[in-house]
Amino acid sequence: MKTVNFYTLGCKVNMYETEAMKKLFIGAGYTVTGKDDADVFVINTCTVTAMSDRKSRQMIRRAKHKNPNSIVVVAGCFSQVSQKQAEEMPEADIIVGTYGRKDIVKYVENYKGKKMNCVYDEIPAVFEEMPSESQSRTRAVIKIQDGCRNFCSYCIIPYARGPLRSRGIDEIIKEVTMLTKKGYKEFVFVGINLACYNYDGLKLGDVIEKVCEIDGVKRVRLGSLEPNVFTEKFLKTVKNQPKLCKHFHISLQSGCNETLKRMNRHYTSEHYLSYLEKIREVCPDVNFTTDVMVGFAGETEEEFNESIQTVKKAGFGSIHVFPYSVRKGTAAEKMDNHVDNETKTKRAEIMTKTGEQLTRCKLEGFIGQTVEVLFETEKDGIFEGFTDSYIKVRAKGENLFGEIVSVTVTGAEKDFLTGEI
Fold it and tell me: In the prediction, which pLDDT does 135 show?
């Protein structure tokens, strides 16, 4: 029996797509393995930063080194944006972009020892249906949207992922229903620009409402969002749908208006904070998390300090901080006044420390409260899981795996709570 090994880089969307490709290979009689002697290696690449490109190339070379006789398939964002680079790599046998991966097994079966480039130069404006069954054991990730047209000045992803397209509601319901029968209770909707979900006039809030009607669904969680999703209609869904998790990861990138303008982000810090206040009005217990970039082209010390103040006003539960790195092919590459690496590192440290202080404050506010936790892992009798607001909780117990249990919070550590069943 032929074997296939997968390496995945990047976001939750990539992880979902890898699981979908695994399903295709299994259906064709392959065995998925983690061994170095696999007949086929599939590298599902990322291109969001220059570092992502470098890691993708390293994985491609490593796979062929492990088994020179293997077929190495390079798929995903790196190969979509950098076809020529992928073609020039002797280790890459088959090159697939971000569309056409449903045919990946056919490409492998038809491989005759000559490099194959199967990348679509123009990505169709049609959602590629690739359902995934192999998930983590308690929380199922569901991809419902692809593509982006924001064209933020630092980002290459619109070129990698193509036009906006959304998954049909019937297919979403079918996949969720199938997974509830396997015991899944929580479902995470993900997309490249999830806020732009639009299928036959149905928006993201409509999907949430319909999925929450399915028997067995206990929680619906959303992946990363843009602020523009929070319309009056969507806020009603937040208020009225108890199964929707009280956690929103809303990308900020910068808390300074001048920086946001150069980034081509279509909001101001004031607008962003007003969205948070509107959500808090209908959902007081909400937990906000975000991404913040430091050291973007032209960011002055004053602009950085403005960003710090916005982050503090927002009261985030946690922040993913990363220094800006130049991405070839983006508008920001040609901008003036790029910030030196030493300054970027310093600012990242300051922003990270600010985030840690906010996290500590958020966690300490839970002490004495009772929270509902979906337990996912266990080690030495200590179970770990998450509240619906995506706060990590640890507690002693028995037979808690996959169960949603009430926990009284007794303490707060650096990034998790401790409690008693």
Answer: 62
